């Protein structure tokens, strides 16, 4: 499945209250030439139904769940739903899977052993009467063991809140072939204070989640840099802000480090779909 080099990662493509507007936005993004549209797992819900709306809206872009929690969606449901959507829309749905955190596992009545849990889930997808093909699923991985598993048992990996240095390290673990598609938050705003405020408002909740904070610590950031919503250094490292040239430089840094695709999340303080930012960032203008 060819995702191209850039895609749009958009919670608005699940959360916007008007499904007709989401359908229209999918068509618009497809026409702009994006290789993939990514939707987050959020709190569960009908993620494949939301993916189907996007599949119907466009004709070319792949739709990727980035990512659904294995604790909130059974492998049986995902295999059945994926097979139906593949029959109706071709090979355009990439099923992104994540292990979430210990709290998610406990709520589901499970034990948080990420590698074992993911292996078991992938085994179930393989054993199903209509298996999810290896190249139509990927794994969220922020550590070397999950990254290795992702390269071995899926199309590749989709790391969240990472720097180009992380991308280079992940490529070394994966080897040359698997998909490496980092998430990249962006703010189309050249005013430093305003752009960093927009970025910090989005980033702050994730810094309170242990698995994301631990990932950033492993990337070389310190506790004091993560405190109080994140220092300017952290913001600048994991969020690309500024004009189109500045954002392109960050995308290029990931690609030069070994990424095959970069999923751009346009952060905005405005309500609704960030269509203006999507248009500015669109591949034909890049």
CATH superfamily: Luciferase-like domain
N-to-C span = 22 Å
Poorly predicted runs of 5 or more residues: none
The average pLDDT score comes to: 96
Q: Which architecture would the CATH scheme give at its second level?
A: Alpha-Beta Barrel
Relative helix content: 40-55%
Total individual domains: 1
How many strand elements?
A: 11
How many DSSP H or I helices? 14
Please give a quick description of this structure.
By secondary structure, the protein is of the alpha/beta class. The protein has helices at residues 12-15, 19-32, 47-57, 75-89, 102-107, 114-127, 144-153, 164-174, 192-207, 210-218, 223-226, 232-238, 244-256, 275-281, and strands at residues 6-9, 36-39, 62-65, 68-69, 93-98, 137-139, 156-157, 179-180, 183-188, 239-242, 262-266. Strands 1, 2, 3, 4, 5, 6, 9, 10 and 11 form a 9-stranded parallel β-sheet that branches. A two-stranded parallel sheet has the order 7-8.
Question: What does the model show?
Answer:
There is one protein chain. This protein has 286 residues and is an alpha/beta fold. The protein has one domain: Luciferase-like domain (TIM Barrel), CATH 3.20.20. Helices cover 49% and strands 15% of the residues. The chain is built from 14 helices and 11 strands. The chain has helices at 12-15, 19-32, 47-57, 75-89, 102-107, 114-127, 144-153, 164-174, 192-207, 210-218, 223-226, 232-238, 244-256, 275-281, and strands at 6-9, 36-39, 62-65, 68-69, 93-98, 137-139, 156-157, 179-180, 183-188, 239-242, 262-266. Strands 1, 2, 3, 4, 5, 6, 9, 10 and 11 form a 9-stranded parallel sheet that branches. It has a two-stranded parallel ribbon with strand order 7-8. Strand 7 (156-157), helix 8 (164-174) and strand 8 (179-180) form a beta-alpha-beta unit. Helix 8 packs parallel to helix 13. The longest helix is centred in the last third of the chain and has 16 residues, at 192-207. The chain starts with 5 loop residues before the first strand and ends in a 5-residue tail after the last helix. The model has no long low-confidence stretch (mean pLDDT 96).
């Amino acid at each position: 499945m060819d995702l191209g080099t850039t895609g749009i990662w958009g919670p608005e493509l699940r959360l916007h209250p008007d499904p007709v507007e989401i359908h229209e936005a999918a068509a618009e993004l497809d026409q702009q030439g994006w290789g993939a549209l990514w939707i987050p797992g959020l709190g569960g819900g009908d993620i494949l139904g939301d993916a189907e709306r996007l599949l119907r809206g466009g004709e070319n872009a792949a739709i990727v769940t980035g990512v659904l929690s294995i604790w909130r969606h059974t492998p049986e449901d995902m295999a059945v739903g994926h097979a139906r959507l593949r029959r109706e829309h071709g090979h355009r749905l990439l099923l992104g899977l994540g292990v979430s955190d210990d709290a998610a596992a406990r709520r589901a009545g499970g034990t948080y052993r990420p590698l074992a849990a993911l292996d078991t889930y992938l085994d179930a997808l393989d054993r199903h009467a209509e298996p999810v093909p290896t190249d139509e699923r990927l794994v969220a991985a922020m550590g070397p063991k999950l990254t290795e598993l992702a390269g071995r048992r899926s199309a590749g990996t989709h790391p969240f809140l990472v720097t180009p240095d992380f991308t280079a390290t992940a490529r070394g673990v994966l080897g040359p072939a698997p998909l490496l598609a980092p998430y990249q938050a962006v703010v189309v705003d050249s005013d430093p204070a305003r752009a960093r405020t927009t970025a910090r408002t989005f980033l702050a909740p994730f810094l309170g989640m242990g698995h994301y904070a631990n990932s950033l610590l492993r990337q070389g950031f310190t506790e004091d840099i993560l405190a109080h919503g994140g220092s300017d250094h952290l913001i600048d490292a994991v969020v690309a802000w500024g004009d189109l040239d500045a954002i392109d430089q960050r995308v290029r840094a990931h690609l030069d480090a070994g990424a095959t695709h970069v999923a751009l999340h346009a952060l905005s303080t405005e309500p609704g779909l960030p269509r203006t930012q999507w248009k500015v960032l669109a591949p034909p203008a890049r």
